[in-house]
Amino acid sequence: MVETSSSLLELGGPVVLVLLGISVAALAVIFAKVFQFSNARVGRHGQVRRAVAQWRTGERSKASQNLLKDRSLSAALVRNAMDAIQMLDQQALSSQERDIREERLREEISARAADRLFGLASWLKALDLVTQISPLLGLFGTVLGMIETFQTLQESGAAANPATLAGGIWVALLTTACGLAVAIPVSVAVTWFETRLEKERAAIEVLLTGVFTAGSGSALNPNPAAS
């Protein structure tokens, strides 16, 4: 394995070395994002859905308490909304003032959700950049290799060996293959992360709507489809 890597670096030159560095950095970011998503329990809404269902049936204190041990992002946001609404319930407010404060609260919770989701999306643009520049770097290495090969062919003149030309071409194409080998798995990872984020964003929106519309006569189902 070590000999193969050394051969690739020797044949591909500095372009393969750059691609190797990019692939190592991208792999580190991917592992960090997987840990971050796991820590935020992205896509795990079972407990939160049950709490929202309890909230909508009038068991408000119990619903909020059931989310205390849930470390997910959605649970934290829903619990904040529930606690804030219960504080409003304890205040003697007119209907108009209650509506104004509840709308302001909803905006604050939505802004907090957007901020947390933005944090989860960090470094995804960098990974997306890797998927774009890796094939281009590989192609750049191929172009440089082809230039060198044809220069050698020109210098050889009539004594040019077709085998030498073929060898030079496959070595030049090696950098393109390396670029694609880096870009394809990173592209798959980026798509997976972005899909999970979109599902999480939709789930949080539905769950929060279920909390804020409880008792308003809304027939909205607060249980998003499981991710």
UniProtKB/TrEMBL annotation:
Coiled coil: none
InterPro entries cross-referenced by the UniProt entry: ExbB/TolQ_transport, MotA_ExbB_proton_chnl
Swiss-Prot/TrEMBL keywords: Cell membrane, Membrane, Protein transport, Transmembrane, Transmembrane helix, Transport
Primary location group: membrane
Bilayer topology: Multi-pass membrane protein
Subcellular location(s) of the protein: Cell membrane; Membrane
Protein family according to the UniProt entry: Belongs to the exbB/tolQ family.
Full protein name: Biopolymer transport protein ExbB
